[in-house]
Amino acid sequence: MAPAQEIERDETVDDLRRRVHRKIFWRLIPFLMVCYAVAYLDRVNVGFAKLGMSADLGLSEGVYGLGAGIFFVGYFIFEVPSNALLHKLGARTWITRIMLTWAVISGACAFISGPTSFYVARFMLGIAEAGFFPGIILYLTYWFPAARRGKIIAIFMIAIPLAGLIGAPLSGAIMTWFDGYHGWAGWRWMFMLEAIPALALGLALPFILSSRVADAKWLSDEEKALIESDLAAEEHGQEIGHGRLRDLMADPLVLRLAIVYFCCIMGQYGITFWLPTLVSSVAHGSPLITGLLSALPYGCAVIAMPLICGHSDRTGERHWHLFLPMAIGGICLLGATLVQDNVTLAMFVLCIATAATLSATPMFWTLPTSIMRGRAAAIGIAAINSIGNLAGFASPSLVGFVNDRTGTPVAGMAILTAMLFAGGALVLSLSRKTA
């Protein structure tokens, strides 16, 4: 074949590949983003409920922190089996089950009456939602090759700041406008009303998602063959192939990745569970004002996440693209507590802290998804996520405990800063081959 013909053929395949990836992107990612935004909102709207719930039910900072964090105990216990079932039963069936279950339990949080029911409701919500996030990360590996995955994961995870950008004003508005309606406090209405989207999306999901490429009736045979051949080519490069949990957890690289993710999540949930409190202490406004101001940091994260992860994809560099957001986020998280007397400066620092800290999480997931395949990916991603998300328990519990003892948020944020720096240092110690 003449060189010109070879070039033309290659360009045709590349054009087809780009077109297919765009087609898959628009079919899956916007819907999954909305699902995850709703999941994240239902998980962290307790941060806004705290503004009224703590006073109504007499919850201390420590009780609130424990209740916010106990979600992740149930999440941890059921994460790995949930992801294994997703791999076995298919994403469409299992993710539908997850969404419908958590919608019911999230709505039931409106009936919390004290510390015990608060703990039980949060624990059950963790069980219901277990497997959703790692399941989606695993699901994306069925459709996108590793070289494109950084930006894809980042765009999907923009759902986190979007949940704050939209959910913060929404939560504040519901708590303000519905407070006292039919004798219910505003935070109870917030739990009930914000569970409705999860229920609607769960019912719509079976009609939108295909479990695997082979099941996608919206792709032609040629398009399916191209995607499957691209993904099959990556199988030869996989470094970790353990199919059993105990083998994966004995792998030093998996353990190090889990520790890095734990540190990422310590910072992330420092933002999501305490941002309303930090903003409220700065602005001294109503729940609605707090919600509107809390949207600003999340808006900055929406812009920063795809820019940072897209640059990492283009350059192929992962280490510094993960370390720098963790380090900058940690510095600014602590800095925000030191400049509370200056509203403008405090909000500026919180914007940088939120954008940097939330950008670290999608950057992290470019690492394990590039070295695991098949059942090893299903188990490994879930194991790393479940261990990392124990930080979702440790972060609010520890910060709440320290804040109770010191009477100031400074010490609690200092702990989160130290964790982010420790995780970042571990990232830099990983081999270049891994990242």
Describe the 3D structure.
This protein is globular. With 435 residues, the chain is an all-alpha fold. Helices cover 80% and strands 0% of the residues. Helix 1 packs parallel to helix 4.
CATH topology: Growth Hormone, Chain: A
H/E element sequence:
HHHHHHHHHHHHHHHHHHH
| Helix content range | over 70%
The tally of helices reads: 19
Principal-axes shape call: globular
Q: Name the average pLDDT.
A: 82
Summarize the topology.
Layout: H1 3-44, H2 46-57, H3 61-89, H4 91-108, H5 115-129, H6 132-141, H7 146-157, H8 159-177, H9 186-193, H10 196-204, H11 221-234, H12 245-249, H13 252-283, H14 287-315, H15 319-338, H16 343-365, H17 374-388, H18 390-406, H19 410-429
Quick tags:
Growth Hormone, Chain: A; mainly alpha; 435 residues
Concise account of the structure shown:
The protein is mostly helical.
